[in-house]
Amino acid sequence: MKECERIIKTLEHFYGHLEIECCGSLGLCSVECKEDAKKRKEEIIEFCSRI
After folding, report:
1. Distance of alpha carbon 2 from its chain centroid, rounded?
2. Organism's domain of life (predicted)?
3. What SS3 state is found at 36?
4. First vs last Cα of the chain: how many Å apart?
5. What pLDDT was estimated at residue 27?
6. For 33, what's the count of Cα atoms within 13 Å in the CB-facing half-sphere?
7. Collapsed DSSP state (helix, strand, coil) of residue 38
8. Is the pTM for the entire model greater than 0.85?
9. Residue 41's pLDDT is what?
10. What DSSP state is assigned to residue 19?
11. How far apart are CA 27 and CA 6, in angstroms?
12. Contact at 8 Å (CB) between 14 and 6?
């Protein structure tokens, strides 16, 4: 998760240059293919419903 957090912070920094406000983030560690994402479907849907 530490690597994901570093990537998220980098993206948020870049967004700042574009005057885009980040409304949330979700780290999906160990997701390398569609099947991995399917296992986290409920978590992803719940996150998307909050943003």
Report:
1. 13
2. Bacteria
3. helix
4. 21
5. 84
6. 1
7. helix
8. no
9. 94
10. T
11. 10
12. no
User: Token pair for residue 49?
Assistant: 């419903």
Query: Residue 22: left (phi > 0), alpha (psi -120 to 50), or beta?
Result: beta
Note whether 24 and 47 are within 8 A (CB).
Answer: yes
Per-residue pLDDT tens over the stretch 1-51:
788 888 889 999 999 999 999 889 888 888 899 999 999 999 999 999 998
Q: Six-digit token pair at 32? A: 């390398």
> For residues 19 and 48, what is the distance between their CA atoms, to the nearest angstrom?
22
The total number of residues written for the chain in this structure: 51
User: Which three-class secondary structure state does DSSP give residue 35?
Assistant: helix
Residue 30 is predicted with a pLDDT of: 84
Please tell me the predicted confidence (pLDDT) of residue 48.
Answer: 94
